[in-house]
Amino acid sequence: MDIAMTDGYPRHAQPEPAWDAAQASALISAEAGREGGLLPALHALMAAFGCVPEAAEPLLASAFNLSRAEITGVIGFYHDFRRAPAGRHVLKLCRAEACQSMNGAALAADLLARLGLEWGGTTADGALTVEPVYCLGLCAMPPAALFDGAPIGRLEARRLAALVADASRVEQTA
Ligand code: FES
What is the pLDDT of residues 94-138, one digit of tens each? Predict the structure, then answer.
């Protein structure tokens, strides 16, 4: 496996979604006739492709009689809809006020810079995706995070580095 490392952190890349237009059309058509079918269609695409591929947008726009911009807006509004498949591990860092004011902003900025990622990006080895989340109900233990769905409170730099290292190490020994 080719993993580029800098300061112990793998560099970024976005995995390519495995696009299947016929499959996407079938999934969208199954929801297109229903009121409020757009969100179920987006969830179906997420389940099939691990993301909502950009190529699905014109299909969605046509099926739901919406503009491409409206489809893009809906996808962007809901943080659970991804543009590219997530890595094998997902780290969500809280960006709401209580956590931001308790070093969460600095921790996140440092991590993203070290990984060379934007929010929602995935490391080059596909091991880790870093996403924002807006309050996890752990406001009494800021800054908070979710790592593969497990809540973490009072996150600090050493713990964060250990999580990233663990994610990468598992991939290299898998
Ligand atoms: S503000 Fe971060 S958990 Fe509530």
Answer: 999 999 999 999 999 999 999 999 998 999 989 999 999 999 999
**Alpha carbons 155 and 102: distance in angstroms, whole number:** 10
Homologous superfamily assigned to 86-173: Glutaredoxin (3.40.30.10)
Using the mean position of ligand 1's atoms as its centre, give its distance from the Cα of residue 139 in Å.
4
Q: Which ligand 1 atom sits closest to the C-alpha of 98?
A: 1
CA–CA gap between residue 32 and residue 40 (Å, rounded): 9
Ligand 1 centre from 111 Cα, in Å? Answer: 18
Domain residues of the chain, as ranges?
Answer: 21-77, 86-173
